C-alpha cells in the first residue's frame, strides 16, 4: 500500500511540475496524448456506467519504455475527455516492472480489469502474471493479484489478456510465444472471472497456419462482427514483402469461423489494418449502441521513436481517433466514428475540374477534416500533398497507393505502399503533427505522424489528365 501511495504521489507531482516548453506546435488537439511522458497501447476500452473509458500504457516519468502504469481518460461522447488518476500503478511483487496491457469488462455493475504483471528477474529474464483488478466506480481499483500463471509450452512473452463473454461463459485470449519461438494466441475460459482453464492455442503455426508467422503475437483481440469471427493481433518478426509489413511490427486481422466445441478457428490470410507509419496494438470494444469501435496506438517503437520532435516538449505518442469497424466485401473497413462531426467548425467546399496541372487549396486551420470525392479521373497519377511533408500518390496504371513523408530528421523521404484497384474518395484528419487518411470509405487506412517547422496549411492536388472532384474542408475544434 505504501509503495502505491508513494508512486501515485510521484506521478501527481510529475504532472503538477510539468511545464510544457512553449510553443508546443506539435501537441495534438483532438487525439488522446499523455499529459507528460510516453503513451503506448490503448488498454481496457469499455463503455461503463454511462461513460466511455480509455486506459493506456503510460510512462509519466520519461519518454522511453521504462516504467509502465495504466493512464486513464473517460468521456461522455468520445470527443471531450476527462483525465483521471492512473488506474493501475506497479506497486506489487507480481507487477513490479510494469502493469502491462490488458482489457476491461463490466460484470455485476463492477468494472473488471485484466492486465499483465511484468516482472524482470535478476538473471535478465522475465516472469509474467495475468492479473485482475476490480472497481465499483470505474475510477478506483482493488487489485486481486494473479489469476493465470505461465502454462508449459510458452516463453514468458505471454501477455495482454483480452476478455469477453460468450454463451454465459467468459473467455480470454493472451498474446504469446511458444517455446519454439512461434507467435500464437492462447485461449482460456472461466465461469467466474477468477478461476481460468487453459483451452489451448487458438491460432498460429501448426494450429491454424502451416508456417512460422512471426516470433511473438502481441495484443490480441477476438470478437464477432457481421456473422464472422475476427482475431486482431500484432505480430512481431514478419519479414517485409512488396506492399506488406513495411513497419518494424505489424497489426492486422484474420477473418474466420470459431467453433467453440471443437476448439478450432479456421481463418483466411492475415491482412494489415493500416498501411501508415504509426499504428500498432489496436483494441476494440462494443459500445451501448452495438457499434464495434477500434482505437490503436498511433506510434511505433522503432529506431525513429526517440527522434519525435515532441520529446523536446516532454511527451511522445498518441492514440488514433476512435473508428467504427465493419465487414464489407470480406474485408475489415474502418471509418471515423460519427461523433467526430461534432468537432467541425468552419466549412469550405469546392468543386474542381482540372487537367494536367496542380491546384493549391488553402486549409482553414492546422486542425482539419478534409473529404475529397473523385467524380472523374482518367490520368495516370492523382497526388495529394498536405502541408510540406506528407503526400499520397495514387498510381492508376499500376494500382499502387504510396504515402510519402519526410523522416523526423527531415533528411529523407520515406514511403509506405499498398495495392488498390481504384481511388474513389479520401477522408482525412489532420491534427498538427498527425494525419489519418481513410480511403474508399475506409477500405484502406494510412495513419502517420510527421514533423515540420512551419506548416503552410495547404493542400495541393496534382493530376495528369482531366479530373473532376469535390473537396470539403472543415477546421476542427480542439477538445482540450
Ligand atoms: C505492445 C506491448 C505489449 C505490452 C506493452 C508494454 O506495444 O509491448 O505487448 O503489454 O506494450 O507497454
From TrEMBL:
<dbReference type="Pfam" id="PF08244">
    <property type="entry name" value="Glyco_hydro_32C"/>
</dbReference>
<comment type="similarity">
    <text>Belongs to the glycosyl hydrolase 32 family.</text>
</comment>
<dbReference type="InterPro" id="IPR006232">
    <property type="entry name" value="Suc6P_hydrolase"/>
</dbReference>
<dbReference type="InterPro" id="IPR013189">
    <property type="entry name" value="Glyco_hydro_32_C"/>
</dbReference>
<protein>
    <recommendedName>
        <fullName>Sucrose-6-phosphate hydrolase</fullName>
        <ecNumber>3.2.1.26</ecNumber>
    </recommendedName>
</protein>
<keyword id="KW-0119">Carbohydrate metabolism</keyword>
<feature type="domain" description="Glycosyl hydrolase family 32 C-terminal">
    <location>
        <begin position="339"/>
        <end position="472"/>
    </location>
</feature>
<keyword id="KW-0963">Cytoplasm</keyword>
<dbReference type="InterPro" id="IPR051214">
    <property type="entry name" value="GH32_Enzymes"/>
</dbReference>
<dbReference type="GO" id="GO:0004564">
    <property type="term" value="F:beta-fructofuranosidase activity"/>
</dbReference>
<dbReference type="Pfam" id="PF00251">
    <property type="entry name" value="Glyco_hydro_32N"/>
</dbReference>
<dbReference type="InterPro" id="IPR013148">
    <property type="entry name" value="Glyco_hydro_32_N"/>
</dbReference>
<keyword id="KW-0378">Hydrolase</keyword>
<dbReference type="InterPro" id="IPR018053">
    <property type="entry name" value="Glyco_hydro_32_AS"/>
</dbReference>
<feature type="domain" description="Glycosyl hydrolase family 32 N-terminal">
    <location>
        <begin position="31"/>
        <end position="336"/>
    </location>
</feature>
<comment type="pathway">
    <text>Glycan biosynthesis; sucrose metabolism.</text>
</comment>
<dbReference type="InterPro" id="IPR013320">
    <property type="entry name" value="ConA-like_dom_sf"/>
</dbReference>
<keyword id="KW-0326">Glycosidase</keyword>
<dbReference type="InterPro" id="IPR001362">
    <property type="entry name" value="Glyco_hydro_32"/>
</dbReference>
<dbReference type="InterPro" id="IPR023296">
    <property type="entry name" value="Glyco_hydro_beta-prop_sf"/>
</dbReference>
<comment type="function">
    <text>Enables the bacterium to metabolize sucrose as a sole carbon source.</text>
</comment>
Amino acid at each position: 500500500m505504501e509503495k502505491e501511495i508513494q508512486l501515485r504521489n510521484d506521478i501527481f507531482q510529475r504532472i503538477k511540475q510539468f511545464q510544457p516548453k512553449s510553443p508546443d506546435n506539435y501537441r495534438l488537439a483532438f487525439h488522446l496524448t499523455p499529459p507528460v511522458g510516453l503513451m503506448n497501447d490503448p488498454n481496457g476500452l469499455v463503455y461503463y456506467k454511462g461513460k466511455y473509458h480509455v486506459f493506456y500504457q503510460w510512462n509519466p516519468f520519461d519518454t522511453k519504455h521504462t516504467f509502465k502504469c495504466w493512464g486513464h481518460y473517460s468521456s461522455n461522447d468520445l470527443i471531450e475527455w476527462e483525465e483521471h488518476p492512473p488506474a493501475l500503478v506497479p506497486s506489487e511483487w507480481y507487477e513490479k516492472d510494469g502493469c502491462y496491457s490488458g482489457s476491461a469488462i463490466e460484470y455485476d455493475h463492477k468494472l473488471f480489469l485484466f492486465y499483465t504483471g511484468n516482472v524482470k528477474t535478476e538473471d535478465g529474464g522475465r516472469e509474467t502474471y495475468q492479473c485482475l483488478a476490480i472497481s465499483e466506480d470505474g475510477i478506483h481499483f482493488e487489485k486481486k493479484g494473479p489469476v493465470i500463471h505461465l502454462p508449459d509450452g510458452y516463453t514468458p512473452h505471454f501477455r495482454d489478456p483480452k476478455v469477453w463473454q460468450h454463451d454465459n461463459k467468459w473467455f480470454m485470449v493472451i498474446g504469446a510465444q511458444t517455446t519454439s519461438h512461434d507467435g500464437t494466441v492462447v485461449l482460456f475460459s472461466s465461469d467466474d472471472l477468477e478461476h481460468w482453464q487453459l483451452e489451448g492455442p487458438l491460432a498460429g503455426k501448426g494450429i491454424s497456419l502451416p508456417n512460422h508467422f512471426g516470433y511473438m503475437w502481441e495484443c490480441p483481440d477476438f470478437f464477432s462482427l457481421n456473422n464472422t469471427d475476427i482475431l486482431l493481433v500484432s505480430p512481431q518478426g514478419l519479414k517485409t514483402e512488396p506492399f506488406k509489413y513495411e513497419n518494424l511490427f505489424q497489426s492486422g486481422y484474420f477473418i474466420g469461423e470459431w467453433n467453440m466445441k471443437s476448439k478450432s478457428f479456421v481463418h483466411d490470410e492475415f491482412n494489415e489494418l493500416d498501411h501508415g507509419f504509426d499504428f500498432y496494438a489496436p483494441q476494440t470494444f462494443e459500445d451501448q449502441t452495438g457499434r464495434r469501435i477500434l482505437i490503436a496506438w498511433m506510434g511505433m517503437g522503432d529506431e525513429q521513436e526517440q527522434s519525435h520532435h515532441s520529446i523536446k516538449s516532454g511527451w511522445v505518442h498518441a492514440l488514433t481517433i476512435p473508428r467504427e469497424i465493419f465487414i464489407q466485401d470480406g474485408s475489415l473497413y474502418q471509418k471515423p466514428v460519427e461523433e467526430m462531426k461534432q468537432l467541425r467548425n468552419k466549412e469550405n467546399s469546392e468543386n474542381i475540374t482540372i487537367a494536367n496541372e496542380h491546384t493549391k487549396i488553402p486549409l482553414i486551420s492546422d486542425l482539419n477534416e478534409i473529404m475529397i470525392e473523385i467524380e472523374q479521373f482518367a490520368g495516370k497519377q492523382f497526388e495529394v500533398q498536405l502541408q510540406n511533408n506528407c503526400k499520397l500518390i495514387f498510381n492508376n496504371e499500376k494500382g499502387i497507393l504510396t504515402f510519402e513523408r519526410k523522416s523526423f530528421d527531415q533528411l529523407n523521404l520515406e514511403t509506405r505502399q499498398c495495392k488498390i484497384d481504384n481511388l474513389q474518395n479520401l477522408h482525412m484528419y489532420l491534427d498538427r503533427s498527425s494525419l489519418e487518411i481513410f480511403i474508399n470509405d475506409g477500405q484502406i487506412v494510412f495513419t502517420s505522424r510527421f514533423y515540420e517547422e512551419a506548416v503552410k496549411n495547404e493542400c495541393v492536388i496534382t493530376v495528369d489528365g482531366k479530373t473532376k472532384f469535390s473537396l470539403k474542408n472543415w477546421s476542427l475544434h480542439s477538445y482540450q
